[in-house]
Amino acid sequence: MLQKLSISNYALIDNLEISFDGGLNILTGETGAGKSIILGALSLILGQRAESRYFFNQQKKCVIEGTFKIADFHLKTFFEDNDLDYEAETVLRREISADGKSRAFVNDTPVNLNSLKLLGEKLIDIHSQHATLEINDPEFQLLVVDSVAKHPDLLGEYQTKFRAYKKSTAKLQQLIDESDKAKADLDYYQFQYDELEKAGLSTHEQEQLEQELYALNNAEEIKRNLLGANYLMQDSDAAALVQLREAGQQLAALIKFNPQIEELQERLNSTIIELKDISAEIENIEQHTHTNEARAVDINIRLSLIYNLQKKHRVNTNAELLELQDELSGKIQQAVFGDEVIEKLQQKLNADKKELEELAAQLSANRSKAIPVIEDQVLQTLAEMGMSNSALKIECTTVSELTKNGIDIVRFLFSANKGHALAEMSKVASGGELSRLMLSIKSLIAKNTALPTIIFDEIDTGVSGEVANKVGQIMEQLSNNLQVITITHLPQIASKGNSHYFVYKDDEAATTYTRIKQLDKNERILEIAKMLSGDKPGESALQNARELLAP
Fold first, then answer.
1. What single string gives the DSSP state of each residue in 288-343?
2. Buried b / exposed e across 232-265, counting CB within 10 Å, b at 16+?
3. What is the SS3 assignment for 259?
4. What's the average model confidence in pLDDT over 253-280?
5. 202-206 long-range contacts, Cβ below 8 Å, gap at least 24?
6. Percent of the chain predicted with pLDDT > 70
7. Does residue 430 carry a pLDDT above 80?
8. At CA 499, angle to CA 458 and CA 468, rounded to 5?
9. For residues 322 and 203, is the Cβ–Cβ distance under 8 A?
10. Closest Cα partner for 86 from 112, 117, 72, 107?
11. C-beta separation of 436 from 380 below 8 A
């Protein structure tokens, strides 16, 4: 439901704000006063392209903002899919600068124009006497049938399972393609796998071998330095350990003079023990360090194999080679055992398809029962609106392939006059007739399904008298189930509204402005009387207006 519309700097509007009611909202005013301007501004937050030449002030940006109550429209999934914050009271805003650049927002989150349009279509349905596209859309026609069939849970279950079925079908085709490729490349994969398996690789082998080879290639230098270090620690005339032992002996002789020296002497002895351990380890490493040309040759051969495999497969580590080996193993398994996996998935798909066909048959049966009801009720409503010679036929054909909506294709055929063949509605009905047909269809849907706000833009053209009164009554009935906003020139329709808004031009200042005001009861009587008889209505017109407004 559209709660509030704010318009700034658009056409003849500098600043304007309208708050709408939940039922039937009437907009009236003289031709050219600006009613279509308000619709034009509204269309901007529904994703329509904008042109800066329509700005009231070319130096300022245009801002259109609409506040909607959306709790009843099951739109949380849409908000999640488009990464938007869901609010039960949602604000759509469009800002257009003087240079034509545009920005769109949903609850202050920037969105692209397409997202704004998709959301707008779920919130507002603008219908004029020239709007014939929707009524001829097979998706809309099927929606009409489904709304009267009253099977939303069944349809939802079918569509959920159909999406899963299509996803599994795509997965099956992927498996078949991969299996076919794996079979074609099996010998190649097997050769590569055998080569890697024969190599017997381990994750850190390369680093360990490189370190070992580096040590072998520098064994003489390593031994020389180890021997030198050990010599300086305990074998030379000024060896560190010799010097420290002598220092310890001298400290031991002083303990009797100063007990504190005993602790220092113990610490020095601990250091001597640690240095002796270090010296022993150095000696051990030195004794196990050898030049081994045969081992170096073996390591070089092994590393050469590793390097060549890495180069061949364009990787840098053994870990990557092992990962590739696992991948090749998987492809080989797929080539050998892929048919079993495919067969199991195919069996599941066959079972899923059978279940979908059963659900689709139920949907089809429900639709077949609903079609006569739709035909009768639409024709009955049309007759009330002065189109008693109308004929409506809904064709429902089934297809062999499952679709997202089942197995049915629906086609509405219509004739507005006796003796004329049934045909697609846009080809056999005038704008006014199509408007009344759409009104009758929408009123039928609204009894069974939550619809967005619907706006009728002068669809009452070509009707008058009692027919106009019937059109107004049907709009009034429609507004019991959804918000209706109607632009009209007919007093019979204007009198049915819960709220009445008067659009007018303000010419008192140097600049012309479009203004709007909500009329109170007395103002409504005067406005409807003017619609009946002109700018200066007499008492009979005023009394007629009172009668039209009487509950």
1. T----HHHHHHHHHHHHHHHHHHHHTT-SSHHHHHHHHHHHHHHHHHHHHHHHHHH
2. ebbeeeebebeebeeebeebeeeeeeeeebeeeb
3. coil
4. 86
5. 202/318, 203/318, 203/319, 203/322, 204/318, 205/306, 205/318, 206/303, 206/306, 206/317, 206/318
6. 95
7. no
8. 40
9. yes
10. 107
11. no
| 173-187, 424-438, 464-478, 494-508: least confidently modelled range | 424-438
Domain 1-129+452-519 architecture: 3-Layer(aba) Sandwich (3.40)
pTM: 0.64
Helices (H) and strands (E) in the chain, counts: 18, 15
Pairwise CA distance, residues 187 & 332, whole Å: 9
Q: Would you give the end-to-end CA distance of the chain in angstroms? A: 25
Which two tokens mark 424?
A: 């697609």
- 42: nearest Cα among 70, 69, 13, 72: 13
Interacting residues of 8 by C-beta distance below 8 A, sequence separation 6+: 14, 15, 16, 62, 63, 64
Q: Which residue has the tokens 């504190």?
A: 260
Q: Which two tokens stand for residue 397?
A: 């054909």
121 to 10, 131, 231: CA distances (angstroms): 22, 14, 91
Chain centre distance of CA 214: 58
Kindly compute the dihedral angle of the four CA atoms of residues 153, 155, 161, 167, in this order, to the nearest 10 degrees.
-140
Cα–Cα distance, 73 to 92 (Å, whole number): 16
Cβ atoms of 484 and 454 closer than 8 Å: yes
User: What's the whole-number mean pLDDT along residues 109-133?
Assistant: 81
In this structure, is the dihedral angle defined by the CA atoms of residues 226, 232, 234 and 236, taken in order, positive or negative?
positive
**What stretches of 20-133 adopt beta strand conformation (E)?**
24-28, 62-69, 89-96, 102-106, 109-111, 124-128
Residue 20 has a pLDDT of 92
| Strand-pair partners of 397 | 409
Q: Which amino acid makes up residue 466?
A: E
Hey, which of 365-369, 435-439, 481-485, 544-548 has the most confident mean pLDDT?
365-369
The DSSP string of 168-191 is: HHHHHHHHHHHHHHHHHTHHHHHH
Q: Is 288 left (phi over 0), alpha (psi -120 to 50) or beta?
A: alpha
User: What residue spans define the domains of the chain?
Assistant: 1-129+452-519, 152-367
In this structure, how many other beta carbons lie within 10 angstroms of the beta carbon of residue 495? 23
By the 10 Å C-beta count (0-12 exposed, 13-18 middle, 19+ buried), 494 is classed as buried
What are the strands of the beta sheet with 406-415, ordered from one edge? 391-403, 406-415, 423-424
How does pLDDT run across 51-88, given as a tens digit for each residue?
Answer: 656 677 777 888 999 999 998 888 888 898 888 999 99
